[in-house]
Amino acid sequence: MIRAENLGKRFGDRAAVEALDLEVAPGEVFGLLGPNGAGKTTTVRMLTSLIAPTAGRAWVNGHAIGADDAAVRRSVGVLTEVPGLYARLTAAENLRFFGRLHSLDDLDARIRRFLTLLGLWERRDDRAGSFSKGMRQKLAIARTLLHDPPVVFLDEPTAALDPSAARVVRDFIAGLRDAGRAIVLCTHNLDEAQRLCNRIAIMQRTILKVGTAETLRAELAGDQLVVTIREVTPAARAAVVGGVGDAALTEVDGRFAIATAAPDALAPGLVRALVAAGADVLRVEVERPSLEAVYLDLVGEAAPADAEDAL
Amino acid sequence: MSWRRVRAIMAREGLEIRRNRMVLLSMSLLPLLMVGVVIGSLLTIAGLVPADLAKQGFVPPPGLAGMNLQAAVQVLVNDQNMLYLILTPTLLPIVIGAYSIIGEKETRSLEPLLATPVTTGEIVLGKTLAALIPAVLLGLLQFALAIAAIGAMTSAPVLAQAVRPLWVVGVFVAMPLLAGLSTLLAVVVSARVNDVRTAQAISSLVVLPIVGSGVAVLVGQIYLTTSVMVAASGALLVLDALVGWLAVRAFGRESILSRLG
Predict the structure, then answer these.
(1) Do B117 and A70 touch (CB under 8 A)?
(2) Is A203 a domain residue?
(3) How many CA atoms lie within 13 A of A71 on its CB side?
């Protein structure tokens, strides 16, 4: 559905995106995670034929970017970070306008279908300017999907929404994925990425790492086996040190944290050794690093210079 | 070029204009004022006594020989006002044209628009026509009201002079072309600047040459005849086409998105 090879974009002598390779299949939600200025919006704009790449090639729904831009735009639905609705037009008029630009014939039926799906049918004759943020975002989603695009790009779809509105939008995105659309989701919200995305790419000008949330966590940070005992005695400490072998070990107030790729294999022997050393084992847990930890590890806590924001 | 998409853009812009009372009001004020100027000048002339005009040495131009002196003065003043009526609609679409692209950029509706299959030519044409049509309609309305006032306040020979071929070509051909030129120039400016206020300020400057040519007629530097008006209309048609082409070129889809983020 989407394929990019060595895609790049320079603005003058500044590279916004470099050597980007990605592939998104139908029915997949592909998350683009990155700090401000990482090149997410530039990537989406290239893949929707809004701006031309300065390097590499890409295809969307079989149409080559730069060679068949009109066909690319017919194939994609783009939800921009800001809804960008026409405030003086009603919800139905906003959709009708975009439906006409896509030369849709069964427009009234489509408008009814999407406004009903997103709970806005009763407000169809109200001006978009009178809508709450959540309602505007839903209307923008309806506009994005009105022409039934096989490829959907969503830029921060739940940003600035209250939790209940965000949940409705997330459920809707999950529904789109289940309906077989290829979805690219740009977000800062790691929890959202984890819940919705089949695969996540962490990017900073290029894709630094791509995988499922689980593989990213395992590959980059690994699991930790954490054993907590009531009182640390020399015998107990010796039992732990002897039991973990070469694995990295940290100890804080009776809490031993052991970095290991196989916590299930390590735990039974360690517990037996501690009990044999007379220790009271209070808890045995496996801690998985959060996606946030993986993300920060890759991109660093400080955001880079906002090349993209300056565009 | 899809006329369906052009019509969609025109309809959407038209709807927004109709729902923005301040824009409608500001567009309507000037034509109404010009009709007032026509009526006011006729009322002023009505107070003139032919004997006084003769005493002051007023001699009607050759084309108006045989008319009484008051009617001749009415024709001369009407001719001047007709030129104003032709020039007025060039100022009306500037506000809309100057807002047309940079305004969408500021309200963030431009990116969703550009993400559709609509072409740059369709956007420019749709937006130009949406600004131009109300201006031309208001221009025709002010002409109709002015003619009605002339008909009601003067004699048949004076009215006949107001609707002679020179002014018919001027109002129905040159006026829409002039207004089209100012609209397209405003659209070009709108595509190249970074905020609405700058667009409106620059757009009001770019019509100065258009207004300047009107002033040249008023001060006698250009003598208007029907053939001059036809020739000027032909030149305007070429200019409109050129500026239309320039407007499409000036609307860099990528640069306008990249410029302001």
Answers:
(1) yes
(2) yes
(3) 10
